[in-house]
Every structure is written in structure tokens, then in C-alpha cells.
């Protein structure tokens, strides 16, 4: 009951051993946090939140509920890419057929207990490993994973490569792309607002919110790379700004996210003003490719397993 109060989606639909993307909103319907909610025990859930002070808000909302809220202070590593599930099977015996997209499981890796979810921040086939316990040996796990993944071509990378892939995959970053000035409907996630369930924080406001006016969308550019803060123009009028941008190796062009001040349709020709002049572009529906998420689901024919 408590989780259904603080999140907009119906939490009862997230079965044991499964996870789901979930928003928390304020009373005005604005997004105050996004993340992945994992159902790890009969009455136990783990919420992997974006950056921000979310636990105090949960505590404030918990008055009258018999719940325990704690920060488990977990660290996470992501292994993403075509051979990722081969590595998963090698390190802990979990096979792809028994661990579908957005599954979660507690298991042991190299003598340490971990929480593993088949998810990620890249839109690639992959999984995440979360530490459990204060005495966790992160350096030991890191070394073990790199050694175990050598035969599969595993390489260590940084947030830069993740940033490019999350843009290509249409994955938003709280505080960078979305904040409490936007509702789930504004960013194309109205499907995660369940009005059929009882009262939840922000329900009344969301029921009165526009449901078909996207205020966050993609942009592809010609001859330049959009940068955060660039103003976006249509017929010399400012219609939005770039929240994030990069060069896309997949599309071989500049891509980014645009926060719009007015609703516009995909394929609208726009310009982005930056130092050195204006670059031309077109608004684009998100994600930029793999709209059905066949790659992370392991269904893409061009992904080798």
C-alpha cells in the first residue's frame, strides 16, 4: 500500500524477482525522482534512484504505514554489450533463458553476495551488479570481473561511453533532462501512471494534466553536435533548449534531447544556437533506434550470444 502511494505505477504488477521503471511525483504532478524498483523479497523492495535526497521524502510519506526505509549504501557495476550474458553465466551460472529482461536475483559472485538485475543505462544487452553489505570487497570484484571477461573481450569504460549510449537509447537523466517541472506525460511515460489504483501522491494534478503534449524529445543535427544549454529555434523564435547532446556512432550524426516550451511534432525542422553559429536539425521521436528495445531484451538478430 505504501509503495502504491508514493509511486505513480501499480506496484502490485511488479512480481517477485522482477523490476520496473517507476516515478515519484509531488502533489503538483511533477517528477521528483525516477529509478528502477526491484521486488527482491515477499515484502522487500529495492529502489535504485537517480541522484537526489529521496529517502527523507519517503520517510515523511510513511507516517501511518508499517514500513522500514533504509539506505543500503550499495555500489553498482554494469556489464553491457553483446557478450554480457555469456559473462553472467560464467561468473554465477545464471543463463539467459532463466533470467529475462528486467529480472532481479540475489546470488553469489566470487564468494560475495550480490544483487543482479538484467537492466542497464545503455539500451544494450546487459546486467548490473549491486553490492550487499558494508564489508563488500569492490576492488576484488572488479578484478575478478575483468579477468573473467577477458575471453569475451570485456573492457573497462567510463561514464562518457554510457552517456552516448543512453542518449541513443532515449534514456533520461534526472536533474539533467527531467525534473519536477515535468510530468510523466510530458516525457512520454504516461503509461506508468495508473489512475485505476487508489490515491497516490500527485494523482489529482496528473488527472488534470495534458496527456498528449511532449515537452522532451530528441533532435538530430546536420554538421554539428548539440550541447547542453543551446537554445532551439523555430522561425527565429526560441522553442526550447538542449538538455544533453553527443555524437552518435550508431547514427553517425549529432543527437540530443530538447526540452520544449511548446508542443511540436517529430520531424519539425529547427535550429540550435551555439558558440560559432547555428546548426540545423530535426526533432526526432525517442529512442533514436531500437524503438521496441529488442537489443536489451536479447531479441535483435544482429546481437551475438
Automatic annotation (TrEMBL):
<dbReference type="GO" id="GO:0005829">
    <property type="term" value="C:cytosol"/>
</dbReference>
<feature type="domain" description="GCVT N-terminal">
    <location>
        <begin position="1"/>
        <end position="197"/>
    </location>
</feature>
<dbReference type="Pfam" id="PF01571">
    <property type="entry name" value="GCV_T"/>
</dbReference>
<dbReference type="InterPro" id="IPR029043">
    <property type="entry name" value="GcvT/YgfZ_C"/>
</dbReference>
<dbReference type="Pfam" id="PF08669">
    <property type="entry name" value="GCV_T_C"/>
</dbReference>
<dbReference type="InterPro" id="IPR028896">
    <property type="entry name" value="GcvT/YgfZ/DmdA"/>
</dbReference>
<dbReference type="InterPro" id="IPR027266">
    <property type="entry name" value="TrmE/GcvT-like"/>
</dbReference>
<protein>
    <recommendedName>
        <fullName>Aminomethyltransferase folate-binding domain-containing protein</fullName>
    </recommendedName>
</protein>
<feature type="domain" description="Aminomethyltransferase C-terminal">
    <location>
        <begin position="215"/>
        <end position="290"/>
    </location>
</feature>
<dbReference type="InterPro" id="IPR013977">
    <property type="entry name" value="GcvT_C"/>
</dbReference>
<dbReference type="InterPro" id="IPR006222">
    <property type="entry name" value="GCVT_N"/>
</dbReference>
Amino acid at each position: 500500500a505504501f509503495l502504491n502511494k508514493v509511486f505513480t505505477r501499480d506496484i502490485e504488477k511488479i512480481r517477485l524477482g522482477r523490476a520496473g521503471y517507476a516515478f515519484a511525483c509531488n502533489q503538483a504532478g511533477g517528477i521528483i525522482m525516477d529509478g528502477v524498483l526491484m521486488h527482491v523479497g515477499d515484502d522487500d523492495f529495492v529502489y535504485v534512484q537517480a541522484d537526489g535526497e529521496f529517502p527523507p521524502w519517503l520517510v515523511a510519506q510513511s507516517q501511518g504505514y508499517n514500513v522500514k526505509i533504509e539506505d543500503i549504501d550499495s555500489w553498482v557495476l554494469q556489464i553491457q554489450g553483446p557478450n554480457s550474458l555469456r559473462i553472467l553465466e560464467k561468473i554465477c551460472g545464471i543463463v539467459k533463458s532463466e533470467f529475462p529482461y528486467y529480472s532481479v536475483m540475489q546470488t553469489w559472485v566470487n564468494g560475495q553476495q550480490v544483487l543482479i538485475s538484467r537492466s542497464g543505462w545503455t539500451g544494450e544487452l546487459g546486467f548490473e551488479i549491486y553490492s550487499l553489505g558494508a564489508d563488500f570487497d569492490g576492488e576484488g570484484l572488479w578484478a575478478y570481473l575483468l579477468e573473467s571477461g577477458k575471453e569475451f573481450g570485456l573492457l573497462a569504460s567510463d561514464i562518457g561511453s554510457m552517456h552516448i549510449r543512453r542518449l541513443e537509447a532515449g534514456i533520461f537523466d534526472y536533474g539533467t533532462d527531467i525534473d519536477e517541472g515535468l510530468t510523466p506525460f510530458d516525457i512520454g511515460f504516461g503509461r506508468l501512471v495508473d489512475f485505476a489504483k487508489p490515491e497516490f501522491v500527485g494523482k489529482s494534478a496528473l488527472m488534470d494534466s495534458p496527456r498528449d503534449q511532449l515537452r522532451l524529445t530528441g533532435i538530430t543535427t546536420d554538421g554539428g553536435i548539440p550541447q547542453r544549454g543551446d537554445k532551439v529555434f523555430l522561425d527565429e523564435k526560441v522553442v526550447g533548449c538542449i538538455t544533453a547532446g553527443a555524437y552518435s556512432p550508431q547514427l553517425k550524426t549529432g543527437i540530443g534531447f530538447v526540452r520544449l516550451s511548446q508542443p511540436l511534432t517529430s520531424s519539425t525542422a529547427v535550429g540550435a544556437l551555439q558558440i560559432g553559429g547555428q546548426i540545423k536539425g530535426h526533432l526526432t521521436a525517442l529512442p533514436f533506434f531500437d524503438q521496441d528495445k529488442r537489443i536489451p531484451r536479447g531479441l535483435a538478430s544482429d546481437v551475438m550470444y
